[in-house]
Amino acid sequence: MTDLEILTELEPVVEDNLNRHLSIAKDWYPHDYIPWSEGRDYAAMGGVDWDIEQSQLSEVARVAMITNLLTEDNLPSYHRTIAENFTLDGAWGTWIGRWTAEENRHGVAMRDYLVVTRGVDPVQLENDRMVHMTRGVHAPDEFNGPLDQVVYVTFQELATRVSHRQTGLVCNDDVANSMLKRIALDENLHMIFYRNLAAASFDLTPDQSIVAVTKILKNFGMPGTGMPNWRRNGVLMVKHGIYDLRQHLDEVVRPILKTWKVFDRDDYGPEGRKSLDELGEYIEKLERDVLKFEESRARIAARTRARAEREEDVATLVGE
Predict the structure, then answer these.
(1) Tell me, which GO biological process terms does this entry list (predicted)?
(2) Would the annotation count 72 as a binding residue?
(3) Binding site annotation covers 11?
(4) In the predicted model, what is the mean pLDDT of residues 121-125?
């Protein structure tokens, strides 16, 4: 099917799911999640500029919050990509507008929280925002058309939900955790919308749908890729379980594939069956990679504990 035919056939599904979304989505307001009483002026207003001693967040929490916020900041790029692959007409356009408005609240809330509580350096945060938004986010050349976009955003929204929830837990702050739980709920509702569209696409054109799923998963990357300090920050977040391979496989990939029943369908043609086999091989490889990753992380953790114990023993001897 052509992209135009797919968009046309799926529009009633978009409308149904848009109405469903509007009936269950709860209004919320970023200002209700900010401890404004903790705010104080910075130097430009006669106050004191940021110092790391002012932050109540651990290094992991700071890194995760910055990464998640900068990811949310690139909303203009995501809006552009979705608009280019979908259409701004009819139910599609209404959904794009609603989705964009809801996503925009996430960055507003997170930035206000971090600036008011002095959780991170606001100057560095702004500098990184300028760099990341100037670069923008560009989908790989292999990703094109509405099916690829629907499939990608389904996985991406759920992955972002996991990242926000885990970040809330490591912040060790009830306010931050409450805010990120609320943001994660939005991400989950958005994921369900796209997941339902993809499920309908499997009934409409199963071969094209499974080809899209296989392509997206084999080339999947979080939308924060390329932001300043991405590699270092990403390693730290993986190390501390903000979003790692195990979570990607067990909490994102497998649940979505199970919902779509991709391995249970019997309506694929030759191209679809070939792509399904390729997907199965990829999942097996991902499972092996997860085990290797966990073994490596366990070895590193053991060495770290052993080093800490040796240092403690030395400190005890010196003290004696």
Answers:
(1) fatty acid biosynthetic process
(2) yes
(3) no
(4) 97
